[in-house]
Amino acid sequence: MGTCLAGVPLLDPLSPAAMAQQLTDVGQNTGVLGSGHIEARAKRVICLHMLGAISHVDTFDYKPKLFEMHGQDIPPSVRETQRLSTMSGGQTAFPIFAPLAEFRQRGESGAWVSDLLPHTASIADELCFVKSVHTEHVNHDPAAKFLHTGFQIAGRPSTGAWISYALGSDNQDLPNFIVMKSGVSVGVPLDTAVWGTGFLPSHHQGVQFRAASDPVLYVNDPPGMERDNRRSMLDALSALVDEQYEETLDSEMLSRLNQYEMAYRMQQSVPEVADISDEPDYILDMYGPDVRTPGTFARNCLLARRLCERGVKFQTLFGMGWDHHLAIRPSFPVRCREVDQPAAALVMDLKQRGLLEDTLVMFGSEFGRTPFAQGDINNPLAGRDHHGGCFTWWFAGGGVKQGMSYGQTDEFSYNVVENPVHIHDLNATLLHILGIDHERLTFRFQGRDFRLTDVHGNVVHEILS
To answer: Is residue 102 part of a domain?
Structure first.
C-alpha cells in the first residue's frame, strides 16, 4: 500500500512533484499538460501590444456620427455610463473629436479600416476584428497587468508563462517566451511583471531581447572564460544541485539550473536568430525601411517570424508611444506608419511560409481612447483620454475566422451594445486556441487554485473556424 501511494502525486500533472519531474532532465521543458486538454488550433502566439492605448476611434471602429457631430458635446446619457480618468474627469465640456482620417470598406469582407493604416487595410480579409473588447481599468499600469496576467496588481503569472508551464517548449535552445519592445515610453510604465512568472517556476518567465549587440543581458561569458570552462562549471553546479535537491525537494533549484543551461545554449542560438543577413531584399522590403534598424517595430516583427520558425511558443512585441493625451493630430499618424506595414508584413510572411495556419497573431492595446477630446478641441495640442468601455483587437491565423468583424459598439464608439468580450474572455479564447481549457489550467498557491482567468472568462467560439 505504501509503495503504491508513493506514486500518487505523479499522477496529477499539476502537482508539485510532477512539476519537479519535468525539470529533472535539465534543459527539457515538456510542460505539465503535454499536448493540452483539447485539440489545438495553433502552436504559437505573437501578441502585438500597442502600449499606451491605440485609438480604436481613429483606426477600426468606424462611426459616421463622430464626423457629423464634430465639436458638439457627447450626450451625457452616453458619457455617464463609463468611468472617466482623472485627466478628463474635471472637464466641463466633452466635445466630440472626429476621427483623424477617412475610413473605407476593404476587401471582400467590407471591413472598415482607416486610411491611416493602408497596409493593414490591404489584408483585411485575413483578419478578424473584435470591436467589443472591454476592461474595468482606465489607467495603463493596472490595465496592462490585467491584460497580460488577469489581475491588476503585480505577482500573478503572465499569459506567456502560463502557456510555457502548460505546454512546454518546441525549441530547447531558445526561451519559450520572448519579449521585445520598440519606441520610447513617455509616461507609460512597462513593468516586467507583465511577462513575469509570479508563483510559477521562474524558468517560464519572458526573456527580453534588446536592440543591442548583446540582445540578452548576462548571457555572454566574461572576458577570459572559454566555452569549455563554462561547460565544466555548469556540470559541477548540476552535480551540487542534484545533491541538494535530494535533501530539500525544492524544485526552484532545478528551475534556476534550467535557466543557466538555457543561457549556455543561447550563446549560440541568439546571435544566429538575430542575424538577418540571410534574409533576401524582397523580404526586408515587405517589412518596410525601418527593418534594417535594430530595435524598430519592423525589425522586431521580422525577428518574431524567425523565432516562430524556430518553435518559440509565445512572443509579445510592445510598440511604445501610444498615450495620446496631447497632440494626437501630428503624432498619431507617425505611430501608425511605424507599425502598419510591419504588422501586415508579419501576417503575410507567415502565410506564405505555411506558418499562419498554426500561429495566432493578435494586435491591440490595454484599452481604447475616448471619442471626445481631452482639452480644447480647437487647440493643436488636443488629444484623447483613456477609455476602457470598448476597444478593438484584431486576430489572424490560428484557427480564427477570416474577414470577420465581431461585436458592436454604439454610434459614438463608447459603449458595447452587442457581443461584449471581456479581457478574461479574450484570454480564455487564447488558451482555447492553444488547446488549453482555461478552467482546468490551475496552480495551487497559498492555499487556493489560481488561474489566468481567475473565476471568470468564456471562450468566444463565434470567432473560431
So the answer is: yes
CATH of the domain at 144: 3.40.720.10
Residue-wise pLDDT tens digits, 403-449:
999 999 999 999 999 999 999 999 999 999 999 999 999 999 999 99
Beta strands (DSSP E) in 305-422 are: 314-319, 359-364, 368-369, 386-387, 391-397, 404-406, 408-409, 416-418, 421-422
Cell numbers placing 79: 458619457
pTM: 0.89
Residue 74 lies in a domain: yes
177 DSSP β-pair partners:
314
Question: Cα–Cα distance between 334 and 16 in angstroms, integer?
Answer: 49
Question: Would you say residue 353 lies in a domain?
Answer: yes
The number of residues making up the chain comes to 465
Q: What is the DSSP string of 297-316?
A: HHHHHHHHHHHHHTT--EEE
Cβ count near 1 (within 10 Å): 5
Domain total in the chain:
1
The cell for 354 is 505555411
At 67 the three-state DSSP class reads helix
What is the spatial distance between Cα 96 and Cα 82, in angstroms, rounded to a whole number? 16
Structural domain including 211 reads: 25-220+281-463
Cell (9 digits) for 462: 463565434
- 88 part of a folded domain: yes
